[in-house]
Amino acid sequence: MTNSQPASSEPSPPSRGRIAERLLPGGEEPDPRFTLANERTFLAWIRTSLALLAGGIAIEAFTADLFLEPVRKGLAIVLLLLGMLLSAGAAVRWLRVERSMRNKAPLPLPLIVPLLAAAGALAAAVVLVFILWR
Amino acid sequence: MMALVTVSAIFLRWLPAHGFPILLLFAVSSAAALAIYLTQRRRYSTSSHGIARENVDADITAVLWTAFAGVVLGALGIGVVLAA
């Protein structure tokens, strides 16, 4: 008795590439509008990340007469770190959403939203404390 | 792409304040913008054909490269700030 698979008359789907096969295994291609919407959301996060990166360098460059050096450097590094994390987090979020859509699973919660909110609140608190204390 | 071009111009604006290390940030953001510009026609064509046949492959390589560029820009920015 053999265990062979029945021959399928349907043509095999074209290869999606090694990286895609590895990072987005299984499931089936979602509606193209959803894939493109996921990419647009990723790009929106990247724009936020770029704004934070530019803001971080701006604080360091132009607030020398406003903030003490440790505060200035601290704020700049918080913003730059946040920009880095958002950039990496946006890619992770894109991957998780794409996987969920391929497998028709519920979409994952956006972990970068609380990260952005917490870091924004922290930066605002540092500035507030500094202004009140000054 | 335009956001990267804008950010690279902003980085250039800070050249007097931070000196030559800022050129690294300018170079990375400009290179990323140029790469997007040079490949956008192909990606647009792929996407529009995909919409027509209702099957668009996720462009995972572009997503990973863009995110990598953001991480590199952040790391270089932290280096510039710490070195200032």
Question: How is the topology of this model organized?
Answer:
The complex is a heterodimer of chains A (134) and B (84).
Chain A: H1 18-23, H2 32-62, H3 69-102, H4 112-133
Helix pairs in contact in A: 2-3, 3-4
Chain B: H1 2-13, H2 15-18, H3 21-52, H4 60-83
Helix pairs in contact in B: 1-3, 3-4
Which structural traits does this protein have?
heterodimer; A: 134 residues; mainly alpha; 69% helix; 0% strand; B: mainly alpha; transmembrane helix (chain A); transmembrane (chain A); IM_YidH-like (chain A); membrane (chain A); DUF202 domain-containing protein (chain A)
Commentary on this structure:
The complex is a heterodimer of chains A (134) and B (84). Chain A has 134 residues and is an all-alpha fold. Chain A has one domain. Chain A contains four helices and no strands. Chain A has helices spanning 18-23, 32-62, 69-102, 112-133. The longest helix of chain A has 34 residues, at 69-102. With 84 residues, chain B is mostly helical. Chain B has one domain. Helix content of chain B is 86%, strand content 0%. Chain B is built from four helices and no strands. Chain B has helices at residues 2-13, 15-18, 21-52, 60-83. In chain B, α1 runs antiparallel to α3 (21-52) and α3 (21-52) runs antiparallel to α4. The longest helix of chain B has 32 residues, at 21-52. The chains are: A mainly alpha (134), B mainly alpha (84). Chain A binds chain B through residues 16-17, 19-20, 23-24, 29, 31-33, 35-36, 38-39, 42-43, 46-47, 49-50, 53-54, 56-58, 60-62, 73, 76-77, 80-81, 83-84, 86-88, 90-91, 94-95, 98, and chain B through 3-4, 7, 10-11, 14, 17-18, 22, 25, 29, 47, 50-51, 54-61, 63-64, 66-67, 69-71, 73-75, 77-78, 80-82, 84. Chain A: Residues 1-10 have a biased composition (Low complexity). Chain A: This is DUF202 domain-containing protein. Chain A: It is found in: Cell membrane. Chain A: It is a multi-pass membrane protein. Chain A: It holds the Pfam family DUF202.
